[in-house]
Design a protein that fits this description.
Elements: H1 2-10, H2 17-31, H3 38-45, H4 49-52, H5 59-72, H6 83-100, H7 116-131, H8 136-159, H9 165-175, H10 185-196, H11 201-220
Helix pairs in contact: 2-5, 5-7, 6-8, 7-8, 8-11
Amino acid sequence: MGAYADRRLEDGEGLSKERVLGAGVALADREGLEALTMRRLARELGAGTMTLYHYVADKDDLLDGMVDVVFSEIDLPAVDADWRTAMRERAASVREALARHPWATALMELRTTHGPTSLRHHEAVLECLRGAGFSIEDATHAYWLLDSYIYGFAIQEASLPFGTSEQLAEMAEVVLPQVPAAQYPRLNEAAAASLAAGYDYTDEFEFGLDLILDGLERLRN
């Protein structure tokens, strides 16, 4: 079957670079980057390993392409919106993409070879900031600051032991008895306030993002 698949796929039927990259993204989503090898990816596609090299030069080329796929899921800053709205919407879109593809967080700015979608994205963000009146230096600072916050938040969010307010409440029932109120009053009052408010971690993202955008607005002026 493998030899037959190789002959069929080498004739250009049933496989494409887009399908190879999509399969790589799906595999990394399910099992993490550690599971991604050329041999494993070939099995996922029902092809011989050497067939993949008709579509990607090597694993680095595969990873570069997968990162570009993730960038394609991120909304570009809206050209008809003010810079703050555009950066807010773009930040939310990046966060959502990283939540779908946690493996990508460490790779998005690590790759030294950027695909066309990645380059188009970076250009659009800088164009938005420059068009809003930021200097070259301040636009660069703003971009780095925003991405440091978004990517850092995504890493922390992915490591949380809870995802909903209900799960947080269940965890608190286990953890809080280990934190005596007399010894740790501030921790207990913070936990009580969070539980009473129906804690949503998304609110933390919005809170931090507002602080950053407020600071950048002052910088712009």
